[in-house]
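Lab notebook: predicted structure, single chain.

Context: the supervisor wants predicted structures on file for every construct in the current expression panel, including those that have not yet been purified. This is the next one on the list. No modifications to the sequence; it matches the entry in the shared construct table.
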Amino acid sequence: MAKSKGKKAKKQDKEWRLKPKTLEIHGGGTLADVDLRPSVHRVTAFSMGSFDRARKLFAGEERGFIYSRINNPTVDRLERRLASLEGAEAALATSSGMSAIQLLSMYLAHSGGHIVSSNRLYGGVFHLFRDMLPKLGISVTFVENPYDINAWKKAHRPNTKFFHVENPSNPVIDVFDMKELAATAHSFGKLLVVDSTLATPALLQPLKQGADVVVHSLSKFYGNGEVIGGAVLGKKELIDDLRLTWFRDGGPCMSPDNAAVFLSHAESLFGRMKEHCKNAVAVANFLARHRKVKKVLYPSFGPRARAAKRLMPKGFGGLMAFEVKGGAKEARMVLESLKLFWHAPNIGESRSLVIHPATTTHGQMLSKELAKAGISPATLRLSIGREDPLDLIYDLGQALDKI
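Prediction complete. Output recorded below exactly as produced.
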């Protein structure tokens, strides 16, 4: 009888899969963890023991801690947490979201490689792809209508190394079909890389929809506006090789202090994302009915709303944008009349933020590039925080009345 119970218990243990909300707290943990809160390992190097073990560690033949630029116990714990949340085999934490994208691009497309990318990108990524990577011998073709799958196919070249998409996009919040894009990339034998910063795993897990690699700017919703960091997630073989080559020699590592902060904020990610989504919908509904607003840029509105809801049924996050009637003058008037919104260049804070993309976050793009990406001089980007939405609506209303 005891033997039978033992078998039953073993079967139950094997089938136990923690729910996503539990993973934000316990994800990536092991039975060896003894600290209720993760220890912060503020050290540079670790004792490697024997001569043979040191050789194996540096060769990647044995797992262990060497030097905090390469790996660190606190950062490792964050990486395991991120991987569990995203449904990835492994994760690599970096110094920022931009360093994650640059690192991955150089790793996958060095020595004359080519990238096919959506043109609906954060301005810094657009500039990296348009101006900086070509200086390193990496070319990029932008797909000007990312909803057109044939446009992605036509942009492919024999030397294409991967397809890149930001989903949802910043700042106009386009939502694309990950399964369709993954199938297209795979039909050419290429990888699909998804920047899922705005979704977070609370709203979408691209790897489960066919994507090969996911990148994040953890500085946004993960970090709750407190620290800078990024991540690359995917197959263990790819992450291990990236760590021991371009990452180890380039050095875009995350500090253990930042990793500890991210671990703490990760424990509230799902709850915070629900608040961001709820508030964004309330604000978007208000703006959509306002007589001085020309267009609301949020997936709940427009001809693609039904498809967007099918693709992201859990919500679209806290970033949105809108166009005021008029131009840059009117947009500036609204921005400078807001009292509760902070004029700051981040996303995912507890407080709401506002910015004028065409002259700031996307200011490195040409006028025609902005137009093709759906950004006008009258566009204002809002990062909707977790205040009472009625206060946010009141603030926007009084600012729009100034026009």
